Amino acid sequence: MSQDAPTNTIRAQAFALGHYATNCYLVFDEDTSEGWVIDCSWGPKPMIEKARELGLKITKIILTHAHVDHLAGIDEVRKAFPDAKVYLHEDEADWTSNAEKNLSAGHGQPFTTEPADVLLKDGQTLDLGTTTWTVHHTPGHSPGSVTLHCPALNAAIVGDVLFHRSIGRADFPTSDYDQLKKSIKSILYRFPDETVCMPGHGEPTTIGDERRYNPFVPDPSVAAR
Ligand SMILES: [Zn+2]
Ligand SMILES: [Zn+2]
Question: Of 15, 44, 75, 170, which one is least surrounded by beta carbons within 10 A?
Fold first, then answer.
């Protein structure tokens, strides 16, 4: 993350896991060794092993949303870090027990698991070390998609909302294309241009880059220049 951020002991490492190379993240404070797991795809072992190697104390398992490619490895992660609480937006509270909604049924391997421990709400904050992360409800790809934004680090974990030069799929029964574009424009594009976005698939990008070059959600205020 940003070199000259006021707090520079926070690190993020991506692991592209499972059938769709879903980016799952270890976000941790080198100073205190507290860490979060963001999303749990199939085969989370490399992420678990890295957390152990770093001696991290995982306190939170946060799901950006509950599609199976972000959820399928959760039992293994929970077992590895039994003290960690699982966080999921309230609008997908029942998706952990619903294989249709979490898309695993359609994938041919119905998957259900225990409910989340904590239901996230828009605007709430979560602290990691000395940094504060705001939970933004950014629906559209799925109704309970969240973006985690850390203003002090100019960093955002955006799940399947916004990708490098692309956006999340909106063709699922519970998706809403207009709402997805609205979430991007009215929430993500208001973050500073230098904000680094860590997406659920593919390479990282920045808000400034996407405002200028994203073909699906152009920002007229910069495109016009
Ligand atoms: Zn998804
Ligand atoms: Zn995904």
Answer: 75
pLDDT in tens, 38-78: 999 999 999 999 999 999 999 999 999 999 999 999 999 99
Neighbours of ion ligand 2 (CB under 5 A): 69, 160, 200
Q: How far is the CA of 4 from the centre of ligand 2 (A)?
A: 31
For residue 215, report the distance from its CA to the centre of ligand 2, in Å.
20
Q: What DSSP element (H or E) covers 208?
A: helix 207-213
Rounded CA separation 211/222 (Å): 7
CATH of the domain at 145: 3.60.15.10
- Specify the pTM: 0.95
Instruction: Answer whether residue 1 is part of any domain.
Output: no
